[in-house]
């Protein structure tokens, strides 16, 4: 979720929630950036526009022919009944052909638009998801996971939706050609993800804007054939209608963004209430959280009511009022024309049909333009993520990593997460194949930064990180990671069985590989207490202890048959007894692979072949546990301090 979740909903004013303005040039540039996702389907998109250009005039001609039905048949009293009836049948047949052709073309256009919208949105979602995984952790950590999730979901849909509208019969009993309307919708799950959003803006909204302007142009032209004054009146009506409606819907748009901000905040409070329920109960803050959620929900409801009122006013008062005023003007003018013999009853009927068909798209045009404005902001947020430079991409022609021996070499490595705040300062370190090396030091010493560079989660500012002599930045990343196993401080478990979570490390592992990993990690010891053993459903691991979760993490790493095993504070969150059991499991692996053990508690690295001590981004000591304890230095001080704390804890 966005940073607004941390704010008081009372502070989320409409100004704070409003979107930045975009110039016409910026708008076209933004739409052009997303066009690349439509480009593979451009032939269908262009065909849809072509169908539109044929369908609109056919529908307008059908309405215009109503004038001939009235003048040449209904009012032609000089003809016999059979002659008049024959004229009616011929004209109605022609109208039917026009309407049928227009309907078929419009249907095919709809199908093509939906196809382009669905395919391009699907491509955009996949591109966003793939790119997100290639981004540096520094970018991902600057925002909460909820915000990245919202960009991948909520920002892909729109605040508007194209809704079906029941056809309103005209004076002749016919429905106007355009039976769509645009309605404002808040961000919700009932919005089709393959219609709105940036891709729908291009594939659905743009053709609708073209259709609206094109239909208005035809309406003005056909009215000109009846009476030039009528076409002038329609043009004159368009200007104030557009200006006043635009002003009203600008306010609605700002309110809609305010509703969005409050909805995000409310969702954040709800998420925290569920995720932190244990803490809320332990601190006796259920009442406080209920009050906080009620306040957030109330603020959302108030803004929603304001938005609904503004929408009703804009559509039912402003637009409908202007429509009625215009209709009254046309009605009065045509009545005068007919009564003075300057126009026929057929002109009267055709005019009202054409005006009715022109007013519906005109009402939509203002809201469609608002849709463009509203969707540019989430579109820009999507591009902000897509424009972030990926750090996990392989260079063109990068060689595949062969079977590794497990040698790791850091050569004069400098690295900073932020400019001016170095995390590593000229680190030189060689880890030999099959060696068990511990890396220790105070918080912020740079221990985890070494691992991040090795796994290419970040890139060194200068210097080299090599595996078996290969610069990790110059080889295919997947081939490198496939031979590395990592056990983090907190093992994340996915919904499924114990075996499923182990196989996450290598879905293609053989039964023998799985059995060996389960045995070496000690998973079988605790899995035996469950009736279904490793086939037990554990959800997200809520029923398991910390030690059991870590054992699954170790098994997940071992099932990969790694050449390098990285333990990143793997036992930091465990109690001493569980930590001893996990360390025994790890100790049994030291002959099979190169092991890097990053630890804050020195107990975890006592048995290492070598221990590297880091402080403020530099290596300050290297040696065995005995050597380092006997020498003056940081390691000895840390050992004495932790031993004293353990003794105090034991007496307690």
TrEMBL record:
Gene3D superfamilies: ABC transporter type 1, transmembrane domain, P-loop containing nucleotide triphosphate hydrolases. It comes from the Bacteria. PROSITE patterns: ABC_TM1F (PS50929), ABC_TRANSPORTER_1 (PS00211), ABC_TRANSPORTER_2 (PS50893). Keywords: ATP-binding, Cell membrane, Membrane, Nucleotide-binding, Transmembrane, Transmembrane helix, Transport. The keyword Coiled coil does not apply. The chain crosses the membrane at residues 45-65, 85-108, 213-239. Residues 46-374 form the ABC transmembrane type-1 domain. It is a multi-pass membrane protein. GO terms for molecular function: ABC-type transporter activity; ATP binding; ATP hydrolysis activity; ATPase-coupled lipid transmembrane transporter activity. SMART domains: AAA. This is Multidrug resistance ABC transporter ATP-binding and permease protein.
């Amino acid at each position: 979720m966005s940073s607004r979740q941390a704010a008081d909903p009372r502070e989320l004013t409409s100004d704070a929630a409003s979107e930045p303005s975009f110039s016409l040039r910026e708008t076209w540039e933004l739409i052009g950036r997303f066009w690349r996702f439509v480009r593979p389907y451009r032939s269908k998109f262009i065909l849809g526009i072509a169908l539109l250009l044929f369908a609109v005039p056919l529908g307008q001609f059908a309405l215009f022919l109503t004038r001939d039905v009235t003048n040449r048949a209904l009012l032609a009293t000089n003809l016999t009944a059979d002659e008049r009836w024959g004229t009616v049948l011929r004209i109605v047949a022609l109208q039917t052909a026009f309407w049928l052709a227009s309907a078929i073309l419009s249907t095919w256009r709809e199908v093509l638009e939906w196809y382009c919208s669905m395919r391009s949105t699907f491509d955009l979602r996949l591109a966003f998801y793939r790119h997100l995984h290639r981004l540096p952790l520094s970018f991902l950590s600057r925002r909460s996971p909820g915000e990245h999730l919202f960009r991948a979901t909520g920002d892909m849909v729109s605040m508007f939706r194209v809704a079906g509208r029941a056809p309103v019969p005209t004076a002749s009993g016919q429905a106007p050609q355009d039976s769509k309307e645009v309605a404002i919708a808040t961000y919700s799950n009932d919005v089709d993800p393959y219609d709105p959003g940036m891709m729908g803006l291009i594939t659905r909204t743009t053709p609708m804007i073209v259709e609206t302007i094109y239909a208005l142009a035809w309406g003005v032209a056909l009215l000109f054939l009846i009476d030039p004054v009528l076409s002038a009146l329609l043009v004159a009506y368009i200007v104030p209608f557009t200006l006043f409606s635009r002003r009203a819907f600008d306010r609605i748009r700002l309110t809609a963004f305010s509703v969005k901000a409050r909805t995000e905040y409310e969702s954040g409070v709800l998420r925290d209430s569920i995720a932190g329920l244990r803490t809320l109960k332990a601190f006796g803050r259920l009442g406080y959280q209920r009050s906080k959620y009620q306040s957030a929900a109330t603020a959302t409801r108030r803004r929603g009511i304001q938005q609904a009122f503004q929408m009703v006013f804009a559509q039912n008062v402003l637009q409908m009022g202007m429509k009625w005023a215009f209709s009254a003007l046309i009605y009065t003018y045509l009545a005068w024309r007919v009564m003075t013999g300057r126009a026929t009853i057929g002109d009267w009927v055709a005019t009202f049909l054409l005006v009715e068909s022109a007013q519906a798209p005109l009402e939509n045009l203002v809201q469609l333009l608002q849709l463009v404005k509203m969707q540019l902001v989430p579109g820009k947020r999507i591009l902000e993520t897509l424009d972030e430079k990926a750090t996990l991409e392989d260079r063109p022609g990068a060689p595949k990593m062969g079977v590794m021996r497990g040698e790791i070499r850091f050569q004069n490595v400098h690295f900073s997460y932020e400019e001016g705040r170095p995390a590593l300062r000229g680190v030189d370190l060689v880890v030999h194949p099959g060696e068990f090396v511990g890396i220790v030091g105070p918080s912020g010493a740079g221990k985890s930064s070494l691992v991040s560079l090795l796994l290419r989660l970040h890139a060194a500012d200068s210097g080299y990180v090599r595996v078996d002599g290969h610069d990790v930045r110059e080889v295919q990343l997947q081939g490198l990671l496939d031979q590395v196993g990592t056990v983090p401080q907190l093992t994340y478990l996915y919904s499924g069985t114990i075996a499923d979570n182990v196989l996450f490390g290598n879905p293609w592992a053989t039964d023998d590989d799985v059995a060996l990993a389960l045995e070496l990690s000690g998973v079988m010891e605790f899995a035996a207490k469950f009736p279904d053993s490793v086939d037990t459903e554990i959800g997200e691991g809520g029923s398991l202890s910390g030690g059991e979760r870590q054992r699954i993490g170790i098994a997940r790493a071992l099932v990969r048959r790694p050449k390098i095993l990285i333990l990143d504070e793997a036992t930091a969150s465990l109690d001493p007894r569980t930590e001893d059991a996990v360390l025994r499991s790890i100790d049994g692996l030291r002959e099979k692979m190169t092991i890097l053990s990053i630890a804050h508690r020195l107990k975890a690295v006592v048995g290492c072949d070598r221990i590297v001590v880091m402080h403020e981004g530099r290596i300050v000591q290297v040696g065995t546990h005995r050597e380092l304890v006997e020498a003056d230095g940081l390691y000895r001080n840390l050992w004495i301090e932790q031993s004293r704390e353990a003794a105090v804890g034991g007496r307690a």
